[in-house]
Amino acid sequence: MDKLSYLSNADSAYIDSLYEAYKQDPEAVDFGWRKFFEGFDFGQTGAAGTTQATPDHVLKEINVLNMINGYRDRGHLFTETNPVRQRRKYYPGKELETFGLSESDMDTVFNAGVEIGLGPAKLRDIRQLIEDTYCRSIGAEFKYIRSPEKIKWLQDRMEGERNTPNFPIEKKKRILKKLNEAVVFENFLGTKFLGQKRFSLEGAESLIPALDSVIEKGADLGIREFVIGMAHRGRLNVLTNILGKSYESIFSEFEGKTYAEEAEQDFGGDVKYHLGYSTDITTDNGASVHLSLVPNPSHLETVDPVVEGIVRSKIDMKYDGDATRIAPILIHGDAAIAGQGIVYEVIQMSKLEGFRTGGTIHIVVNNQVGFTTNFKDGRSSTYCTDIAKVTLSPVFHVNGDDVEALVYAINLAVEYRQKYHTDVFIDLLCYRRYGHNEADEPKFTQPLLYKAIEKHPNPREIYNKKLLEQGSVDANLAKEMEKDFRKLLQERLEESKEEENLTQDNPMYSGAWKGLRKARYEDIFAPVKTAVAEKNFLALAKAISTLPKDKKFFRKISRLFEERLKMVNTKTFDWAMGELMAYATLLDEGFRVRISGQDVERGTFSHRHAVLTLEDSEEEYIPLQQISGGERFNVYNSHLSEYGVLGFEYGYALANPQSLTIWEAQFGDFYNGAQIIVDQYISSAETKWRRSNGLVMLLPHGLEGQGPEHSSARIERFLELCAENNMQIVNCTTPANFFHVLRRQLKRDYRKPLIVFTPKSLLRHPKVVSNIAEFTGKSQFQEVIDDNYVKSADVKRVLFCSGKIYYDLLEKQQADERKDVAIIRVEQLYPTPMDKLRAVRNKYKNASEFIWVQEEPENMGAWPYICRKFRNRNITLDVVSRKESSSTATGYAKQHITQQLAVVGRAFEDKNAGQEVKDQVKANVKVAQKVD
């Protein structure tokens, strides 16, 4: 046997033994082998009608089967899918000899043809079918899928049609029309707006008929909404020729026009190829479909989790859990899908309960180059789409010059998605007509490739030639299409020149956002009614704290809930109850609450216990789901991802402003793994894209001797992003204030992101409690909390602070009975309540010192921001903090306590602080040695 054959001598001996067993007793062999052996009688029938089956022919039959499966498994390596490069060579190949066959076998009839639906057939016919199916313009990777049903479905569909489209004339004309629009639109922009960046689709224009087809096909299969995420390349073409954004708007954007409305004067805007759009279309079959293209920054794959979050939100809110009614489409670049870790984070969400969206249609616009980097330098994997194997998703590699093959493959992909509710990938092999942008010179780095591209016809020319050769269209059809479309574009260009400003044709506050509005400056500090009736509060508190008698919980859990019931009786509540009561009251009022993040069900510090697992089983009990409206409460432990999950929750909140959508970091420090979402979306989307969002971030924060990576949520980084009332930054010190600030998110008629620096050690601090009056009556969120321990006339020094350090200062103040020092808590750092802070300052008119106290180093925390705010208003403010540092905190417990006591001592100008530090370090060191 040839050494390259897939079948070894051991295999042959095994098959011979099976065949012998079959001849003795057909029932003695496996069903699959029995079906294989029966009915052949192995191909050779003598003149007398007797079977002359031989082990040699049995082996040949197996070799043919092996060839069929070899094509199914490796045929994608030998396809005609690259329009401008020679494919790499793979060894062994698909030669007959590889499978133990030869040319002399080509006219032999093999019953193995049954496997591909031919019945007994000549080897040349069998080979032709699998060659057409797996080695032409479509290469399929699917054999790694572990579901025999899915594999068989794909095999039957592809082999039954030989992966060869057979579209009617009208479908072909539609494809040509969409190709024409794609090609002419890019050409028109290139000639009318010379030198301007547009990140053209040229070389990949077949994407447009492909998207057009997937929408039509998807609508036929029940999809009523598509949410699309893509980077900049080809975005303008997709906006106009798929979503129907007016050509006049695009032309006006090229001319640099801005919005005229007064309400848009603080709209900073973004470059035109980052903007989003949404619209409703009607398909050829009369279905109404909503299309959305999500805004995207230059961080290419950042939009992926946002799209998934939007889709999941709509599944929950709009489609009653039916994921077949809406589908996400993610359009990637080949370099980005292979190089960006966020892609992996998002793909790992696809089958998780809290994040699945019924399958994503991934389309890779494979230009075979990333900016100036060749593909061989951009990845180690064979294909840019090899990440699909993580979730066992099928991949179709398609030649971008064969537009019918692409349309066929993407139709198959959407069918698969609808049937099996999993991801599917289309690898669109194409090229970039120009450089990274139209001003770039690609020959600097890819001279040979771009020599080939210069001579290469565009997909419309190729397809038109094919249709003419088939006699499918009139010779003048393409010319007439181009002439008519170019005329239309010219008319729209002239119309755009007549308009002085852009008009808003895609308003934010519609659909799910109807009834909400953009916040005005005077709204920011307006009081918000967030208190609830005492009777209702206590009833809900009792309900979520009472465990069923017929279920066995861990003893510690039972004791914890007994303590919570005691809180109901004493009407005094800790941090966990303040938080849970915010959720309970919102659910009771008809809102949705969703929380996700690492370990959020229990809480990193075991304070929340929103989900309880029974002691003797894996059954879960969720107290908040037992109250009225509790079905709208969802809490999910996420996979170990910050970037992906925060982006997902941002998208979820974007689609549903009536949900309190929360992402919690395990430790606040870890949010920086998702810094791009904070910078590009949370802090800036409203001014860039006119997109409001009410997402809440909970970031455990506080220096407690747990080291540099478990101390600081980087308050300073959030504050440096604050302007134009874009976010809310709070560092609450009481359960009630946390309760009110969470409820405030949904009790106003506008939405702003909320960043909450939450406590760790304070979760069980005996002084961190709130009584019932602080949740009810006329209570509300307090941006600033004054000191009720002192009399203003006696105060000589005023300490401003925020968060955990207040309790360290309070302990010192009370122990030393310092009536001359007032401690003012700034609960909301931004928007900064300057009027209230100024009023506090004026109240303590006998004070000679006003000091900002923080436990963070001087170059971190709130001080750099607060200093600037006060300085700009000619208010003198000194600082007491740790000294400047390149690291957020020390990793040594003794050093931490020394520093902390020194900060507190300096705040009170205690001359004995140094000795006090020495005395207390030994006594307190155990407190700071808590493990993560």
Automatic annotation (TrEMBL):
The keyword tRNA-binding does not apply. It is an enzyme of class 1 (oxidoreductase). Residues 478-506 form a coiled coil. GO terms for biological process: tricarboxylic acid cycle. Keywords: Coiled coil, Oxidoreductase, Thiamine pyrophosphate. Its cofactor is thiamine diphosphate. GO terms for cellular component: cytosol; oxoglutarate dehydrogenase complex. Belongs to the alpha-ketoglutarate dehydrogenase family. This is oxoglutarate dehydrogenase (succinyl-transferring). It comes from Parapedobacter composti.
